[in-house]
């Protein structure tokens, strides 16, 4: 726009006015191209942090970031492409389970995934613990596999949402990450650029989550649902508990093993239940069932009759993986040492601080702190107890899987993460709210 100046737009936001769509597009284009320097973008991010954004501004920011780079065209895939996104969390095995599960009832799953930083690897790292499995497939092969098998996963290709990459990195070092419109637009821009027609969000809340408080999680969920509505992508959100890790396993191969058990109907209750809940919404949005109840029934049946695990095997084999790991999960990488962590007294589990358990897994080598770090796919932690469970003195509440004999620090970290109470404890709910 002729005559537009970044300094004036910063001042406008600083004073609490709303930016127009054209102004937001101009800013994101200029910032992506390098015409707007980091120091001005930092000032704007801080103004947004304090002043917020209207729904209209947030939607405009999202779409400006979507169009800052490549947008994946999934139109050659038949059906409604529904993507799922979980915000943070520890040892979150839902993606591994949900992909094959919903694919087995006909929902196309065209997943593009990265490696990322964190307590454990990303979905791709986890799947690479299956011997031979790889995501280096061409885009044509990827689209063909989704049409044929309803599921495929490809490594991040091309240049999706470069504006978000740059802005997120800038926010990270300018104390402006924690702004609802900035987080919501960041997450939604990536899903939309990756080709999603409809989006199911799993917003975690609790000690192990990005949004520690329910009220914050609700605001974030609502902001993302609002964006979806405004930009023509059906979007809904489930707010789920991450005050303790989901399921029992935290680690890469360990989570694949847990996903296999869940797809066969022998998984942890909480992981199974959350996958059925999120999965029902995916099936419903993909128009593969006329109601949520019917969607859930289809998914339960797919687990019972073996089609869910069969879809997982087909998916693995199609991308070079050994499908027999589903029959014999001991073929997955195994750690050299296992070390039980035992309770020092009788009691009830009152809390398992999820991000502390995640940190313990990271210390074992399950995750990356820096992009260049190598991951040990075999290591991690398997919990044996959940909040509310009874433990006896000397009983193991967790097992450390390690490739180093000395796990003293990890053991101390875990012991500190698990709180016992002498009196019975009511476990937290798994799902707090659903926002549509
Ligand atoms: N995750 C994202 O992708 N973006 C944010 O801004 C925060 C969390
Ligand atoms: Ca898990």
TrEMBL record:
This protein's UniProt keywords: Glycosyltransferase, Metal-binding, Potassium, Transferase
Gene Ontology process terms (BP): pyrimidine nucleobase metabolic process; pyrimidine nucleoside metabolic process
Catalytic activity annotation: 2'-deoxyuridine + phosphate = 2-deoxy-alpha-D-ribose 1-phosphate + uracil; thymidine + phosphate = 2-deoxy-alpha-D-ribose 1-phosphate + thymine; uridine + phosphate = alpha-D-ribose 1-phosphate + uracil
Cofactor: K(+)
InterPro entries reported in the protein's UniProt record: Glycosyl_Trfase_fam3, Glycosyl_Trfase_fam3_N_dom, Glycosyl_Trfase_fam3_N_dom_sf, Nuc_phospho_transferase, PYNP-like_C_sf, PYNP_C, Pyrmidine_PPas_bac/euk, Pyrmidine_PPase_CS
Enzyme class: transferase
GO CC terms, sorted: cytosol
This protein's record includes keyword Transferase: yes
This protein's record includes keyword Metal-binding: yes
Protein's name in the database: Pyrimidine-nucleoside phosphorylase
Recorded name of the encoding gene: deoA
């Amino acid at each position: 726009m002729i005559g537009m100046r970044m300094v004036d737009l910063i001042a406008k936001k600083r004073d609490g006015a709303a930016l127009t769509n054209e102004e937001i597009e101009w800013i994101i284009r200029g910032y992506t191209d390098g015409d707007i320097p980091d120091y001005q973008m930092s000032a704007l991010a801080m103004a947004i942090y304090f002043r917020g954004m209207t729904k209209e501004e947030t939607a405009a920011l999202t779409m400006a970031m979507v169009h800052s780079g490549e947008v994946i065209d999934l139109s050659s895939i038949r059906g409604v492409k529904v993507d799922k996104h979980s915000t943070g969390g520890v040892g979150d095995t839902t993606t591994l389970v949900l992909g094959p599960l919903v694919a087995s009832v006909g929902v196309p799953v065209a997943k593009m995934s990265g490696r990322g930083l964190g307590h454990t690897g990303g979905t791709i790292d986890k799947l690479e613990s299956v011997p031979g499995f790889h995501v280096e497939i061409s885009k044509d092969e990827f689209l063909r596999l989704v049409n044929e098998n309803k599921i495929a996963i490809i490594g991040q290709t091309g240049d999706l949402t470069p504006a978000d990459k740059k802005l997120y990195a800038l926010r990270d070092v300018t104390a402006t990450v924690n702004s609802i419109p900035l987080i919501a637009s960041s997450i939604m821009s990536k899903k939309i650029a990756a080709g999603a027609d409809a989006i199911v969000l799993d917003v975690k809340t609790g000690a192990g989550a990005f949004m520690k408080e329910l009220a914050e999680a609700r605001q974030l969920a609502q902001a993302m649902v609002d964006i979806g509505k405004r930009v023509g992508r059906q979007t809904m959100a489930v707010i789920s508990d991450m005050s303790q890790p989901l399921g029992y396993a935290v680690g890469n191969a360990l989570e694949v093993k847990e996903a296999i058990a869940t797809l066969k109907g022998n998984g942890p209750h909480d992981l199974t239940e959350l996958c059925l809940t999120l999965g029902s919404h995916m099936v419903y949005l993909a128009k593969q069932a006329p109601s949520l109840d019917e969607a859930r029934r289809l998914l339960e049946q797919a687990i019972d009759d073996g089609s869910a695990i069969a879809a997982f095997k087909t998916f693995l084999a199609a991308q070079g993986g050994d499908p027999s790991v589903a029959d014999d999960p001991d073929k997955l990488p195994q750690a050299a040492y296992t070390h039980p962590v035992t309770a020092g007294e009788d009691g009830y589990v009152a809390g398992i601080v999820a991000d502390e358990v995640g940190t313990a897994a990271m210390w074992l080598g399950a995750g990356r702190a820096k992009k260049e770090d190598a991951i040990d796919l075999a290591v991690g932690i398997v919990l044996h107890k959940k909040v509310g469970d009874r433990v006896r003195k000397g009983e193991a509440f967790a097992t450390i899987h390690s490739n180093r004999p000395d796990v003293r620090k990890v053991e101390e970290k875990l012991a500190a993460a698990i709180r016992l109470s002498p009196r019975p404890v009511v476990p937290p709910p798994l799902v707090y709210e659903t926002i549509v």
